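discrete fold record:
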Amino acid sequence: MLFGLKLTPCPHCRQTGAVIGHGFLRGYAEGSSEVETRGRRVFCSDRGQRPGCGRTFSVLLSTVLGGFVLRTLTLFCFATAVLAGLTRRAAWLREARGALSLSSGYRLWRRLCAAQSTLRARLCREAPPPDSPAREPLAQLVRHLRLVVGESEADPFAAFQNVVQQGLLAQ
């Protein structure tokens, strides 16, 4: 996770060579009360002769949705189940396996639908949208996503976050 960190510029001051690991980000696991590692805390060092700004920032794992306990694979499976014809309720109960409330599923669905235009803009920077016979906008988005990250990806949402280096639901 820290491979190549020294070559990464600080998002605040854009200095290279001053960024160092500063601890872990931990949070609850999706289906239990166990604590798991969700990312790293990074420090732009201004100590000694280093040119940094002294600020910290977070780097999340690509399988983590920022601000949510839910993993990207669960959200992708939920979305594809709805696109396959299940109701949102049935799809959420199947994919979340009772770990999260039904209102969380509806809230995440609204966030995913609201983020579609931002996601489309990011995807269009990577590749032009493919022709899609689907009438559902989310199905067209998933098809475009698969084109950008590859058809063989098991977790396209995580691969997307890794490719564009931004959160899936960040607006």
Observations:
- The first strand starts at residue 19 and ends at 28.
- Residues 5-60 form one domain.
